[in-house]
Write a structure and sequence with these properties.
Layout (H helix, E strand, L loop, with lengths): L1 E6 L4 E9 L4 E10 L6 H19 L3 E5 L7 H20 L4 E4 L1 H8 L7 H11 L9 H43 L1
Parallel strand pairs: 1-4, 4-5
Antiparallel strand pairs: 1-2, 2-3
Helix pairs in contact: 1-2, 3-5, 4-5
Length: 182
Amino acid sequence: MRIFGIDPGSGRTGYGCIDSDGSRCQLVASGFVSLPSSLCFPDKLTRIFDELVALLARHRPACVAVEEVFYARNARSALTLGQVRGVALLAAGKAGLPVSEYAATAVKSAVVGYGRADKRQVQHMVSLLLKLEEPPSPHDVSDALAIAICHAHTGALQSMRGLAASSGAELRSWRRYRTAGD
């Protein structure tokens, strides 16, 4: 499965695209959308949207994973981040892709094993998990890759649970049919 992770930011929006079989992940592409501070905010949002739409079309992922909104002390920062997230969600929606959202602590737990890991620890583990020669930089990129890896691990578990649940339902249905037929 090809997964596209997005770490929204108003200064830099990181992205990371991986292929995963549920247990192993391989880097496809990564980078960031850099935004000059001279741009007005609506133009920044337009640029993020346009670049994400182009990246999604180029890499053709099966799904998109985005970091959830966090509760910041600074309401203005949280609002700005929310608007960037909205643009990322819109880009995925326009591409017809399913979106999963993960809390930062869930991403860190999935990648590092500790929900309060710092950015260097996340960067290091992403490098190890993807077998990269150098850690992905800047942190926006490693965070986006971590979000994609989190989805690969979480999505595999959800698929297994869904398969087990549907197999159980089919078995119960078969038993009812068998009992009724006897």
